[in-house]
Amino acid sequence: MANLSHLRALEAESIHIIREVAAEFQKPVMLYSIGKDSSVMLRLAQKAFFPARIPFPLLHVDTTYKFKEMIEFRDHYPASIGCELRVYSNQEAVHAGANPFVLGTSKCCSLLKTRALLDGLAQGGYDAAFGGARRDEEKSRAKERIYSFRDGHGQWDPKNQRPELWNLYNSRVDKGQSIRVFPLSNWTELDVWHYIHLESIPVVPLYFAKERPVIVRGGSLIPPESDVVKLLPGEKVSMVKCRMRSLGCSPCTGAIRSDADTVPRIIEELLSFRRSERENRVIDHDQEGSMELKKREGYF
Amino acid sequence: MRTAEASFEASTLTIEEFLEKESGKELLRFSTAGSVDDGKSTLIGRLLYDARGIYEDQLAAIQKSKLNRSTGPIDFSLLTDGLRAEREQGITIDVAYRHFSTPRRKFIIADTPGHEQYTRNMATGASTSSLAIVLIDARNGVLAQTRRHATISSLLGIPRLILAVNKMDLKEYSRQVFEDICADFLYFAREMGFAHIQPIPISALEGDNVAKRSARTPWYTGPSLLEHLESVPVSTDVASGALRFPVQYVIRPDQNFRGYAAQIASGTIGKGDRVQILPSGQLSHVASITTFDGELEHAEAPMSVTITLEDERDISRGDMIVHTHSLPKLARQMEANLVWMTDEPLTAGRSYLLKHTTQQVNARVLSIESKLDIQAMERRQALSLGLNDIGTIRIEASRPLFFDTYKENRLTGSFILIDAISNTTVAAGMIISALEGRNAARRPVRAEERHKRNGHKPAVLEVHNANLATLLERRLFEYGCQVVALDNPGPVASLLAAGVLVITPMPGYANAIRVGELALPADDQAAVDAVLLYLAQHDILDSGHFAFGEGI
Ligand SMILES: Nc1nc2c(ncn2[C@@H]2O[C@H](COP(=O)(O)OP(=O)(O)OP(=O)(O)O)[C@@H](O)[C@H]2O)c(=O)[nH]1
Ligand SMILES: [Mg+2]
Q: Could you tell me the CA-to-CA distances from B279 to A279, B268, B317, B518, B532 in Å, in that order?
C-alpha cells in the first residue's frame, strides 16, 4: 500500500493532537497570532471536528502594535468559519504607553506579550493553550515537547520536561498549571507554505509582495505603521516592493524586498533564502539564548 | 529543509513540479544514541552542515560563539544543543528535533542526550524513530551507556541501527580499532532483534564518511552515513495490519450526525465494513467515512478520520473499533517491559494511572519479574526498579484493555504510567503478553470465550439428508470445528452450551437452521460448500478464523 504523503502524515498527526486536547482538558483555548502558522493550525482544527464546530475559542493577545491588515483579517476570517475569537491586551501597559523604543524590545515584549498572555490565560481559566510554534523555527523551540508543561506561573523548565513517548500525551495538571500544546511541532516553514498552497488557506495579505511605504534603515525595511516609529534625521518614507516573512508587531518586524506575490512564488523565494525566518524579528536576538529566556518566563 | 533549496536551484523544475516531487518524498525519522561525549550532537551538526540544512545566520551565530569546545573551527554540537545550560555544560540535556531533506527523502532527527541522568529523554526521542544511529567513541569502545541505549532502542522496536564508530581521526583511522569495536557491539546485540545493523567508521568533526566517503578509510567499502540514510528501507506497513480504530472523540454537531473520530492506529477501514465495537462487543457497519475534504470509500493508518455507523450505538472515547475477524487481545493483566523514568523507585503493589491508546485507567503493578543488569546484560531478580532501569513487570488494570503485543503493534502495544500525585510520566511500557490472572482462573468459561477459541458459534443444523449430514460433519470437523452429527434426540442443549455445532435430522429445535429449506445444489459435495458459505455469511463460522474465500 502506498505511503501517506509526508504532508498528509503531518496533517493526521496534528489532528490527533488537537482532538486529544479537546477530549482531555477542561478548558482549552487556541492562541491565534493571525500569522501563517495560526492559519494552518486553524484549518487543522476545522478538519479535526468536522462537521461540528471547533469546540474551543481562539485567543488573540493584542499588543496594539499589530498591522492594520492583521487586525482586519483577525476580525473577519475566524468569524467567517464560525469560530469564536477573544482578544486580550495588557491594558495597564498599553495605557502607560509601553513602546519598544522607550522600554527596549525586551521589556516591551515582556509586558505586552508575555504578561498579557499569562494574564489572558489566567483570566480565562484555560488549562491548555494551543500555539502554532514549530521546532524548526529556533534552537530552543527544537527542544520543546508537543505537550509543554507550564507551572503555576506559566513558566517552562527546559531542564525538567516530562518524557513524551509515542503519541501518548500526558495531560495531567493541577489547578493553576497548564499545558502549551504545539500541534505543528514537526512541520517546517516549507511544509506550512506548501500546505497553505495545497489547501488554498487564506492568509494576511502582508505576506504577499507589493509596493509599500517603508523606512530604509540599515539593512532593514521598517513599515511606518505605528506612531512610535519616528523618522531619524535624514530618513524618509519610500515605496519599496516588499513583503513580510513572518508577522509580529509592526515596529519590530522588518519587511523584506520581494516580488513574491503568490503562494508558489513565496515558496520559490523561500527555497532561495540563506537566512532563517526569525532573523527579521528584532526580539529573538536581543541576547544569546533570548528566546529560551522568554519562553521560561511564559512567552509562547 | 535547506537542502530542498539546493535540489530546486540545480534543477529546471517549475515550482509546481518541485512541490509535486516534494509531496512524494518519503519521511524517515531517526534518533541518535550512545554514551555522553561520543559525538552525537557534533555528528548531527555536521550532517546538517554538509547537507546544507542550516541557515547562514544560524551558522554565523555558532561561529561567533565563545563556547567552542571542539578542536575544529566550528563546534557543530552548538547547532542542536540549543539550551543555555547545554551550551554552558557542554552536554545535551534534552532531545533536539531537527529537519533536513535531500532530493530523495525528508528527515526528522531526534538528537538525544547520552548522559545517564537523562535517559528518559533519549527514550522520548527514540519512541517515534524508525532508525537509530548508535555512536561509539573509537577511543572508548562499547560502554554501559552504549548498551543501555541499544537495549532501549531494541525494546522500542526500532528495526534498524547504524553503528557509527566516531572520532576515527583520533585513532589514525585504524581498521583494526573499527573492526574490534564492531565485533564487540555486534556480539552483544546479536539477540536484540534488530533487522539490520550498518557499521560505519566516521569522524563527526572532520566529516569523514558523514556525507561523502572518505579517502582516509580506503579499507572501508560501505556507504557514507548520508548515503545509507537515503537508501535504507523506510518501514511503514501500518496500513496493512489489523484494523485498530481507537475512538478519540465523539463528534455530534446535531441530532442527525454522530461521528467517531480517531487516528487509525493500523489497518484500513472501508465504507460498508462490518465492525465490532469493544468493549461492548456490539456489531455494526460503517455508514460513512467523513472528512472536511469530503467522504471517503477507504481510509488507512495513520489517517485521522471520522466514521459514522449504520446503527445507533453507545460508543465513547477509549472504545476500540475493529474488524470481527482480527480481534485484539483482551485482558486486565499483562506482562510488559518497562523503562523506569523517575527518581522514586518502582515497587510491587504501587498504583498508577495507565494511559493506553485513548484511554486512561488505574493500574497496579503486581510484581517485578526481572531487571536488566546493563553491565552483564543479564536479567536478574529485583525488588524494585530505579531511575533508568529496564525491567519486566506484571501489571493489572482496573478495566480490561484491548491491545496487541508491542511487537505486533507499536501503538496498541504501548502505554505510559503517570503518577497521580506528581502528575509526571514515570514509565514507558511495552506489552509482551496478556496474563490469565488469578481471578481469571476462577472465572467460569463464558460463551464468548468458547466462540473465540472455536471460531464459530453453537448452532443446530437440521439436516434430513443423511449423506449430506455425514459430509458436513466431516468437513466441519476437518476445519477444526466442534461438531457432532446426532441421529437421536440426545443432549442437544448441553452440546450447544459447550459451543458445539449440532447436525441432526430431529426437527423442532428453536432457531435451527433448516438446511433442507436452503436452495442447495443437487450434488451433496457442492451442497456442503453451499452450507459452509451460508454459515459463514450468517456469522456462525467466523470467516476470519477459517479464511473462507469466495470458493469454499
Ligand atoms: N576529535 C574529534 N572530536 C570529536 C568528534 N566528534 C565529537 N568530538 C568532540 O567530542 C566532544 C563531545 O561531542 P558532543 O557532540 O557534544 O557529544 P554528544 O555525544 O552529543 O554528548 P551528549 O549529548 O552530552 O551525550 C566535543 O568536544 C566534540 O568536539 C570527532 O569525530 N573527532
Ligand atoms: Mg549531544
A: 53, 20, 11, 35, 29
Distance from CA of A61 to the nearest CA of B (A): 26
ipTM of the complex: 0.91
Q: How far apart are CA B223 and CA B231, in angstroms?
A: 10
Place of cell 493584542: A62
- Assess A275–B contact: CB distance below 8 Å, yes or no: yes
Residue A1, chain B, CB below 8 Å: the answer is yes
Question: How many Å separate Cα B529 from the centre of its chain?
Answer: 39
User: Cα–Cα distance between A159 and A143 in angstroms, integer?
Assistant: 10
Structural contact between residues B91 and B36, judged by C-beta atoms closer than 8 angstroms: yes
Q: Which of residues 170-199 of A touch B (CB under 8 A)?
A: 170, 172-174, 185-186, 188-191, 194, 197-198
Tens-digit pLDDT string for chain A (300 aa): 345 788 999 999 999 999 999 999 999 999 999 999 999 999 999 999 999 999 999 999 998 878 899 999 999 999 999 999 999 988 887 788 777 777 777 787 788 888 889 999 999 999 999 999 999 888 889 999 999 999 988 889 988 899 999 999 999 999 989 999 999 999 999 999 999 999 999 999 999 999 999 988 877 888 887 777 778 888 888 899 999 888 887 777 788 999 999 999 999 888 887 666 655 555 444 455 677 877 777 776
**CA–CA gap between residue A248 and residue A231 (Å, rounded):** 20
Chain A: give the shortest CA distance to residue B302, in Å. Answer: 7
Residue among A47, A145, A159 minimizing CB distance to B291:
A47
pTM metric for this prediction? 0.84
